[in-house]
Amino acid sequence: MGFSFIFLLILIVLLGIYSFVLLELNKTVVYLDLLFLELNVQLGLVILTSTLVGILVAIILEIIFISSNRKNKDE
After folding, report:
1. For residue 55, what are the domain limits?
2. Total structural domains in the chain?
3. What is the Cα–Cα distance from 58 to 11, expressed in whole angstroms?
């Protein structure tokens, strides 16, 4: 058993624990008040959506930053 196997095993266990906690949070209902709209959303959905939106924003900003660096190198 090498270090990589132990690391992979720990990673799988932590992923399982995180998934279990996320599923337990999914039973809690959160009331969102968006000016003229009130939503009843499960907490797990809110967490997943905000994480995905954050990842997408970070990727878009990184693409803009990398493309601006390439333009400066070409000039």
Report:
1. 29-75
2. 1
3. 24
Distance separating alpha carbons of residues 30 and 69, to the nearest angstrom: 42
Q: Up-side HSE of residue 6: CA atoms within 13 Å toward CB?
A: 3
pTM score, whole prediction: 0.56
User: Residue 24 has what DSSP assignment?
Assistant: H
CB 42 within 8 A of CB 30: yes
Q: Is residue 66 part of a domain?
A: yes
End-to-end CA distance of the chain: 52
Q: Which of 8-12, 17-21, 68-72 has the lowest mean pLDDT?
A: 68-72
Residue 68 domain-assigned (yes or no): yes
